[in-house]
Design a protein that fits this description.
The structure is a single chain. This protein is α/β, with parallel strands linked by helices. The chain folds into two domains: 125 residues, NAD(P)-binding Rossmann-like Domain (Rossmann fold, 3-Layer(aba) Sandwich), CATH 3.40.50; 102 residues, Dihydrodipicolinate Reductase, domain 2, CATH 3.30.360.10. It is built from eight helices and eleven strands. The strands form two sheets. Strands 2-1-3-4-5-11 form a six-stranded parallel beta sheet, sandwiched between helices. A five-stranded mixed beta sheet has the order 7-8-6-9-10, covered by helices on one side. Helix 1 crosses helix 7 and helix 5 packs parallel to helix 6. The structure holds NADP nicotinamide-adenine-dinucleotide phosphate.
Length: 241
């Protein structure tokens, strides 16, 4: 498979290493210093594009790939308030797009566990819910895209919470997400359900970026010959419990 890497930073490099070890070819590497090489002709040379840049450039990059007719994987976080526009753009261009706030298989298992626990807790309104996410200090967005996905899953099932906030709160109908930035932490997410008598906590800790990169390659292999908006749930074959 020929891969275009849009964004060749920490994630782009981790993805390249795994892609090469699986016999794939990297045909394009784009950073902010060679954007002029990100042309329609260059992108058309790839079977799939993998975009890990930042919240500000992601949408434009995705549009360029979709316009060129190249299936695109997006891992950039912090831009999802503009999801509807990109979804429509993808459909207009009969394109292929997979966005995941987290590509690691472990986190995608954790997402399923989170939904299951939220469903179980939906009738136990004496528990308050608190989420914490910790990432390295270079992370540009807060809360993390993964934390937003986890929070939205909880909001779908727990009726006592109306919305999430990214600060401490005393409002019982707000789901509190606390973001911490600590050097060298790849990504930790924990959710606590606390009552006056006990606490239930689930945590996922990423030890390195290999899980994200391996998941992104798996997703790229899956979407290469498909059309439309595709999810990691579909790639991993997770059924609804
Ligand atoms: N979904 C997931 O599983 C997952 C996992 C980890 C991270 N992420 C997200 O992925 C994104 C990238 O993370 P990272 O750790 O790899 O960041 P990073 O190390 O800062 O790398 C970002 C890369 O994007 C390039 N870039 C900046 N502006 C660009 C533009 N306009 N067009 C093309 N390339 C551009 C940068 O080039 P320069 O260095 O020249 O500026 C750099 O190569 C972030 O949004 C992060 O939150 C997602």
């Amino acid at each position: 498979m020929k891969i275009a890497l849009i964004g060749y930073g920490k994630m782009g490099k981790a993805i390249e290493e795994i892609a090469l070890s699986k016999g794939h070819q990297i045909v394009l590497k784009i950073t902010s210093s060679n954007i002029d090489e990100f042309t329609t002709a260059a992108i058309k040379n790839a079977d799939v594009a993998i975009e890990f840049t930042n919240p500000h450039s992601a949408i434009n990059n995705l549009k360029k790939c979709l316009q060129a007719g190249v299936p695109v994987i997006c891992g950039s976080t912090g831009w999802l308030n503009q999801w509807n526009g990109i979804e429509a753009f993808c459909q207009q261009h009969n394109g292929t797009l997979l966005f995941a706030s987290n590509f690691s298989i472990g986190v995608n298992l954790f997402f399923e566990l989170n939904i299951f626990l939220a469903k179980l807790m939906s009738n136990h309104t004496n528990y308050n819910i608190l989420m914490e996410e910790i990432h390295h200090t270079q992370k540009k967005d807060a809360p993390s895209g993964t934390a937003i996905t986890l929070a939205e899953q909880i909001l779908q099932h727990v009726t006592t919470k109306e919305n999430w906030v990214n600060h401490a709160t005393q409002n019982a109908d707000e789901l509190e997400i606390i973001s911490k930035r600590i050097d060298a932490v790849t990504g930790t997410h924990s959710i606590k359900y606390t009552s006056a008598i006990d606490e239930i906590e689930i945590t996922h800790k990423a030890f390195n970026r290999t899980g994200f990169a391996a998941g992104a390659i798996l997703a790229a292999e899956y979407i290469k010959d498909k059309k439309g908006i595709i999810t990691m749930k579909e790639v991993l074959g997770f059924k609804n419990f």
